[in-house]
């Protein structure tokens, strides 16, 4: 594996859940640097639980969560660390339903994403970079975030996460509730970020969107992650499971899955 595609996140044998209930059981996966890995599965499969465990909001019962750091040369165990420390290390989450601060301005929402940083000059430069990158936010930077459209709020949630300068970006169902045009824009943003070297772990139910952006895909089933884009029997079984889930009424207005080869 080349340096550009070395794993920024490696999860091995992870078990986690809520109290005595184990949602994840012996889950393993990897996210290469500069690539998009996608988690597929119906509600309750454990997608959000995995993302929340990586960022420290849920404690792991066992297993390891290894992170390579911003420079890619580290081997940092994230398990047991508080969320604020994990953000400071360069891991950011775009939560489901966007969860912007509705009463704050767009500008103040962006600055909230840099709350763990102390480099004021760098924060100012990144703020301007976000406003250039997302012109709609620049036009509305004094506007309250709660008055933005759903697509604009998703844009803001992504930009807010980027203000922490992450090497690993986690996104929980970012296409949910977006118009088709906004979904296309979101696909382009995600591929652009991966092209800049960021590792992205994406949880989704929209199979068509996921297959359009993902370099590798996993199906969460029975608390484990099954690799979809492998050419062996395990990959074939996982793809068959996705097709069965989709055909059984996943409620997705999308075409059947088309898993891509992953690096």
Automatic annotation (TrEMBL):
Domain ABC transporter: 9-247
Record has Transport as a keyword: yes
Signal peptide (UniProt feature, chain positions): none
Gene Ontology terms for molecular function: ATP binding; ATP hydrolysis activity; branched-chain amino acid transmembrane transporter activity
Family recorded in the similarity comment: Belongs to the ABC transporter superfamily.
Keywords, in A-Z order: Amino-acid transport, ATP-binding, Nucleotide-binding, Transport
InterPro entries reported for this sequence: AAA+_ATPase, ABC_transporter-like_ATP-bd, ABC_transporter-like_CS, BCAA_Transport_ATP-bd_LivF, P-loop_NTPase
Family annotation (Gene3D superfamilies): P-loop containing nucleotide triphosphate hydrolases
GO BP terms: L-amino acid transport
Species the sequence originates in: plant metagenome
Annotated protein name in UniProt: Branched-chain amino acid transport ATP-binding protein LivF (TC 3.A.1.4.1)
